[in-house]
Amino acid sequence: MRKTGAILATTALLMGSALAADAPANSPLPAGKPAGTHQAALEMGGVWLVIGLAAVAGIIAAVASTTQGTSGTSS
């Protein structure tokens, strides 16, 4: 059973790459070309926003954990 599964998986992988090589050069995703690099560069701003928010949350957590609270009553 494992042998049959391995043969089927190998055949599917080989056929997939063989069919991709036949794609026309003017197709939306030509074989061997990067896909969506311009779009990914435009969306990088959202990643920086998440990183910034995580950094601010980390700083607030660090300050809150090291700050000693004072009691409301004076002695």
Question: In brief, what are we looking at here?
Answer:
The mean pLDDT is about 75.
Strand residue percentage? under 5%
Tally of alpha and pi helices: 3
Q: Could you list the spans in which at least 5 consecutive residues all have pLDDT below 50?
A: none
Taken in chain order, the helices and strands follow as: HHH
* Rounded Rg: 27 Å
Mean pLDDT: 74
The major pleated sheet works out as: none
Termini Cα gap? 79 Å
Number of strands: 0
Give the helix/strand class: mainly alpha
| Shape summary | elongated
Helix content: 55-70%
Labels describing this entry:
75 residues, mainly alpha, 3 helices, 0% strand, elongated
Element layout with pairings:
Elements: H1 2-21, H2 37-42, H3 44-66
What would your notes on this structure say?
The protein has three helices and no strands. The chain has helices at 2-21, 37-42, 44-66.
